Amino acid sequence: MSELHFDVTGVAPTPAIRAAPAWLRRAAGLARAVLAGPMGKVGAVSVGLMLILAVSAGILAPYDPIAIAPMDRLEGPSLSHPLGTDQLGRDLLSRVIEGTRTVMEVVVAGIGGALAIGLSMGLVAGYGPRLLASLLMLISDVVMSLPMMLFALAMTAMLGGGLGTVVLVVIAFMVPAYFRVARGQTLTLKGADYIVAARAMGASPLRIIMRHLLPNMAGPLLVLIAMDVPTVIGIESGLSFLGQGAQPPTPTWGSILRDGFAFIRQAPHIVLAGGLPILIATVGFTFFSEALRDALDPRLVGKKARRP
Amino acid sequence: MAFYAVRRLFQSALVLIATIGALFWLTYIAPGDPASVMLGPRATAAEKAALRGEMQLDKPIPVRFAHFWGQVLDGDLGKDMVTHRPVATLIEEALPHTLALTALAIGWAIVLGIPAGCWCAVRRDSWGDRVAGIVSTAMIALPTAVIGIYALLWFAVRLHWFPAIGAGRAGDPGDQLRHLILPSFTVGIGWVGYLTRLARASMLEVLDEPHVRTFRAFGVPGSRIVWRYVLPIAVTPVVSILGVGIGGLLSNAILIEIIFVRPGIGRLIYDAVLTRNFPVLVGTVLVTAALYLLINLIADLVVASLDPRVRAAL
Hints:
Strand content of chain A: under 5%
CATH architecture of chain A: Orthogonal Bundle
Radius of gyration of chain A: 23 Å
Number of domains of chain B: 2
CATH topology of chain A: MetI-like fold
Distance between the termini of chain A: 32 Å
CATH class of the largest domain in chain B: Mainly Alpha
Structural class of chain B: mainly alpha
Largest sheet of chain B: none
Number of domains of chain A: 1
CATH superfamily of the largest domain in chain B: MetI-like
Low-confidence stretches of chain A: 1-11
CATH class of chain A: Mainly Alpha
Oligomer: heterodimer
Low-confidence stretches of chain B: none
Number of strands of chain B: 0
Number of helices of chain B: 13
Structural class of chain A: mainly alpha
Strand content of chain B: under 5%
Helix content of chain A: 55-70%
Mean pLDDT of chain B: 82
Largest interface: A-B, 52 and 64 residues
Order of helices and strands of chain B: HHHHHHHHHHHHH
């Protein structure tokens, strides 16, 4: 607690700090708090690595990730192919890097979709008629009361495999959590004095939502998003491993695992190459989300861990 | 309490009906015709029509839905489209494998997670506690597919410590258990980490209670306080959370059964998905979901009967 001190001398902050907008100062403070512990550091590094790989996959990949080279098939790691090649002679490093982009696209589309739908549903349930709210709660109870993999496989059986189906599975599976947070926060905040006051002064529901509700939900939602990233990666890699996610020749980490699993005895380097980025990403994002949660809400330190 | 149990049962039935209803409805928008898939490209139109009639694919969805539930109430889940064996028999054969896998995974979580959590709580904020905190968080994050494949690669293919695939010889419990060790550990590894954290938090809470302070003041030895007075109170909420975790464990079990080629429910569902074997898919989803809901309900009722505070809140 030595960092905690109170400014009693009345010295004004330096002009440079005062000039920075409030949100930037808050973001800088948050970043410092996240990076304070070992978990936050490891998490931030791996999250940063994944984002860099995803954004610049086209530049960083040394080979064409789907170019087949029959002469080089099942080669172990070497100088020209640092992670080796797969059963079709494709460079695994390039496939891992290109896969990072695909996985992150699924993460963004899945969580973004779930966030948009869950948030609107939650606001409607918090503001709208009681009956609609109960109906939405029932639907989210149904989805939440099924084992995820069962739900996902049933959906792929009905809709056919593919990354689109994976995104749909992620959205359907994650909407209830966002819905609950949004609804809970809406119900709690709706009765808060300052919101009642804003309403009395004639603020429209839209203004209250944009100005008061959403900024107040940002914290819990941010933590939820960070915690959901490893889950989405798990769903994507699980389904792609089962052949129900990315379809060949699209590389994702899970589809590399699938390719390698057939050759696990002759060429174990393929599954090692496919699994390692999954481990780094899931563990990294989990550490990051834990540090973020502790930084945003010190009351929750060490509590409410993400369920496996 | 009884009213609560009945309400929950009713709710569970509603969830099941909604789930199966959604499955039925989704067959309508599914690409591909199950009859064509099953009979292959050389089947004649008449053969396909006959099969569609047999599978009742030509009837409207509500009729099939009502018919299906009528059958379910008679204990009939339909017939496998490929082998023509009753789906109920297939599930009966597969279920024990999945249940054994899940139960053993819970066993790992309890046997490793709770002692680890207690150890951390007693040595709060020590170096070991901090390392264990990081390791257990990482264990929660590990995705099952990767852990399963890595474990198979390392312990079965490389070191030959355990058999790689299958469920072991029928009627040989020792062999079957050897085949279970690796898969069950990979299914349960996330819960080992999770229970470590929960047990630690729960122990710390109880250690802070006034009655523990009183024991200390009376000079009761530290180990006796922990074993006799703290652990029993701290463990109850930890074990009860396992009921909620069954869904996650079943999800992991599905993946692990496919990786380790075990003849369980996961394998059955996966094969049904690959062949669009609709009756098998619906039957297994129904039984697994029902089982999951039932276990959840039982877990909640057990907690309520153990803890008067929970009972009062129902």
